[in-house]
Write a structure and sequence with these properties.
Radius of gyration: 34 Å
Largest sheet: 8 strands, mixed
CATH class of the largest domain: Mainly Alpha
Number of helices: 29
Distance between the termini: 71 Å
Number of domains: 4
Length: 805
């Protein structure tokens, strides 16, 4: 119904756009390519290493400069490539959720991108639509607006002729036209959309742990560097040697942690997007790994968004007459929704001129219209049975029928009337139901169950995720549907009316015990999510309507349906592109996989950092030559952590995430780092004492640390019970095969003179390799014993009991 509105002509639109009166809105869903490059390239550690590389080039040490800057450049290139690829993929997918607007041009209704709107355009607002520009209501339509993103108030605001509407608000019910008065830079839409879609600057547990690790290591490396600088100044060490040492010291900070976190998030986002879920916040995938409660609505998750009128149960009136009354009622209401559309398909009618109206809202769960027409006279009400029952004349047959339908999982509404036209609003302008309503009929509606719902629910159970269904429908109807799709055991259902009469303690207890919450208002839904979080749950919330916005913002992870309102898509962390929550178990498992993979990455990187640091300190105390050169350090890093952590992160298995990655890795890192440093120092001092050739001693040291580093890889992901010590059995043989591949690669370096000379390694006798191999084998058995008996834990905490993994 366009009320004869013509809108602007195409020539007027072109002229206004030329005058700069267009609504040219740009949506930035991710960082720009320049921002990605800047973040990856110009970190503090990278800048220091680049500077050292330049100094080495100026001193003619081209090889050391290439090694020092080469790993940095590789990290930057891989990081930019991974994030750039994820950005491209995400922006392609994000086009699917870009807001659309309905406008009137030359008397015709068109759906356009918000960029095409110009000043003076006439737009249409229907339930779920976002108000995309600031304007004013024109014509005789009326709508209810959710301005919670603007004001923080959840109350819906009625808008009629001449009332102002603002971009960033959302139409909850009704249909109206509004004229664009502020567009482009003058509109609020850019700011509001940016705020709604912007990443929440809340770091995940993994990000907080990594930040802490980096800060501590930067502090330790800075102190170590200062002490070495003072030592070199006193001993008058040549400048070139000092710069080479500085390159090794700075490289101790595991910049790969930041790099791997970025790569893991990007890879996770791309993987999940291929399964039908758009990640709108980079760390949302990891955040899902902590989810142990999922709140969902019936509609759009257990069922599709398609409903059909199942049956009509007349009360004292001919069924044909009820169908005519229903047809006239829905044809006369501007409040188009799925329910009225289902009635329209089954009941033909014609529009009548209505007087006072109350449009349907999830707050009061009924709609009403008054008529003064020969064919339709009095007030007619359509609403939820439990809401209308106190205002109806008693009818036991009707109650029995509605209860029977609810037990079958059917949605039920009552249609009632009163011959006169009492007011539908109280003195404060709020909707009120008139008493003495005469029941005309009960209506049942069937929901189409999603074919994947049962399998998806079983996958949530496998992930130990507790499910809560929070719906606006009858709790018994929802409970019946829940049983149909596989909810087992005692499914306790509670209604919003019951919750409204409870105090805080009772509400918290019921929230913990109940599974189904029906006839819930948006405020109650938000309150339930808040209670679940207070009870210690990490809550994910799925929503598709404007009434879900508040609860989505309250949840730890907000999830929206693609076909839902623009409001929910804007505030959600994840958007389900195919409207199927079957993609969520994949996302949750991907989050667990990321955390478990990063746990292994942290173990390897910290172990290498600490044993090299301890080795440097020990050699300074003993007073022998610096044990590591930049090239030795580079091959050690490349073979034991550089290549392996990329593969291990990609091969990671899902599992329950630790409460703290730092604490969970200490059992592995401390014994490994300490024992490797002892073995490496012993071999270094042995070869220095044997022939006083520092080059051979450094080669022996590098060989020993490479072997030790490679032996740690099977301990990170134990392929068999024999390797269990630092972690539980995984059964994955790929990391072990990778370690063997890295050993072969190191052997190639030692055999080929050009590679051996480049990395400043010296040939050794076969007996030397055998000796080092025997020492590493003994160290391996000793380290496994230390892990299994938890000797380090017992040493640090005498009260701790020995236990085997």
């Amino acid at each position: 119904m366009m009320q004869n509105l013509q809108g602007l002509s195409e020539s007027q639109v072109i002229a206004r756009r030329k005058r700069g009166q267009g609504n040219n809105v740009q949506f930035q869903t991710t960082r720009s390519y320049l921002q990605i490059l800047r973040k990856n390239a110009f970190t503090f550690i990278n800048t220091v290493l680049f500077a050292i590389g330049i100094v080495l080039i100026l001193m003619g040490q081209i090889g050391d400069a290439l090694v020092t800057g080469g790993l940095v450049m590789m990290n930057v290139v891989v990081g930019v490539f991974q994030e750039g690829r994820a950005k491209h993929k995400l922006e392609q997918i994000a086009l699917l959720t870009r807001p659309q607007a309905t406008i009137i041009r030359s008397g015709e209704e068109k759906t356009v991108d918000p960029d095409e709107i110009v000043l003076g355009d006439v737009l249409v607002a229907r339930p779920g639509d976002q108000i995309v520009v600031d304007g004013q209501i024109i014509g005789d339509g009326q709508i209810k607006i959710d301005e919670s993103l603007l004001t923080g108030e959840s109350d819906h605001v009625l808008k009629q002729t001449s009332d102002a509407v603002y971009s960033g608000s959302f139409c909850v019910s009704g249909t109206a036209f509004y004229k664009a008065q502020k567009v482009g830079a003058e509109s609020l839409i850019n700011q509001l959309t940016a705020k709604a879609r912007a990443f929440r600057q809340i770091k995940t547990p993994l990000q907080r742990d990594i930040d802490f690790i980096i800060r501590v290591l930067v502090l330790l490396v800075t102190q170590l560097g200062l002490l070495l600088a003072i030592s070199f100044a006193i001993r008058d060490v040549p400048l070139i040697e000092g710069v080479r040492v500085a390159a090794v010291i700075v490289a101790l900070v595991p910049q790969g942690l930041f790099f791997m976190t970025t790569v893991a998030y990007a890879m996770g986002a791309v993987r999940v997007s291929s399964e039908g879920a758009l990640i709108q916040q980079s760390n949302a995938v990891e955040s899902t790994s902590h989810v142990n409660m999922l709140c969902l609505d019936k509609t759009g998750t257990l069922t599709t968004n398609c409903i059909k009128l199942h049956a009509i149960h007349p009360v004292g009136t001919d069924k044909a007459e009820i169908q005519r009354l229903l047809g006239d009622y829905v044809a006369s209401t501007p409040d188009a929704n799925r329910t009225t559309e289902a009635i329209k398909q089954a009941c033909m009618g014609q529009a009548r001129r209505a007087g006072e109206r109350v449009m349907f809202s999830s707050d009061h769960k009924w709609s009403a219209q008054t008529f003064d027409d020969g064919a339709l006279r009095g007030v007619y009400v359509l609403g939820a049975p439990e809401i209308l029952q106190p205002y109806l004349q008693p009818n036991n047959d009707l109650i029995m029928q509605t209860d029977a339908w609810a037990e079958q999982g059917l949605r039920v509404l009552l249609f009632a009337h009163r011959p006169d036209n009492p007011p539908l609003h109280n003195t404060e302008g709020k909707p009120q139901l008139p008493s003495g309503l005469i029941p005309l009929a009960a209506l049942s509606f069937s929901d189409e169950l999603r074919p994947e719902a049962q399998e998806t629910l079983s996958r949530f159970a496998d992930l130990d995720i507790q499910l809560k269904i929070i719906s606006g429908d009858n709790p018994h109807t929802v409970a019946a549907l829940a049983r149909q799709v596989g909810f087992k055991g005692d499914v306790r259902a509670v209604s919003g009316l019951e919750l409204s009469n409870m105090d805080e303690a009772q509400l918290a207890e019921v929230a913990k015990e109940a599974t189904i919450f029906g006839r819930i208002t948006p405020q109650q839904k938000e309150k339930l999510v808040r209670i679940f979080r207070k009870q210690g749950y990490h809550v994910a919330m799925i929503g598709d309507g404007v009434n879900d916005v508040l609860s989505l913002k309250q949840a730890d992870v907000g999830i929206a349906m693609q076909s839902g309102s623009q409001a929910t898509r804007s505030v959600a962390d994840i958007v389900l592109l195919n409207d199927s929550f079957a993609a969520l178990p994949v996302a949750f498992r991907e989050g667990q996989r990321i955390v478990k993979g990063m746990e292994d990455v942290v173990r390897l990187l910290l172990t290498r950092t600490f044993y090299v640091m301890l080795l440097i300190v020990a050699t300074r105390i003993v007073g022998v030559a610096f044990p590591v050169t930049p090239k030795h350090n580079s091959i050690l890093a490349l073979l034991t952590v550089g290549i392996p952590i990329l593969a291990i992160a990609a091969w990671a298995r899902p599992g329950a995430p630790p409460r703290s990655v730092l604490r969970s890795t200490s059992h592995f890192v401390l014994p490994a780092a300490f024992t490797v440093s002892v073995v490496a120092l012993g071999i270094y001092l042995f070869y220095l004492g044997m022939n006083e050739d520092v080059e051979i001693a450094r080669t022996a040291l590098t060989t020993a640390t490479v072997l030790c580093g490679l032996m740690l890889i099977p301990f990170v992901e134990p392929p068999t019970k024999a390797w269990v010590g630092g972690d539980v059995l995984s059964g994955d043989r790929r990391p072990t095969l990778l370690a063997l591949g890295m050993l072969v690669l190191y052997s190639v370096v030692m055999v080929m003179p050009s590679l051996r000379n480049f990395f400043e390694l010296t040939p050794m006798r076969g007996l030397d390799y055998l000796l080092i191999g025997i020492v590493v084998a003994i160290w391996t058995m000793l380290l496994r014993y230390i892990w299994r008996k938890r000797l380090f834990e017992s040493l640090l905490d005498p009260g701790a009991r020995d236990s085997e993994i």
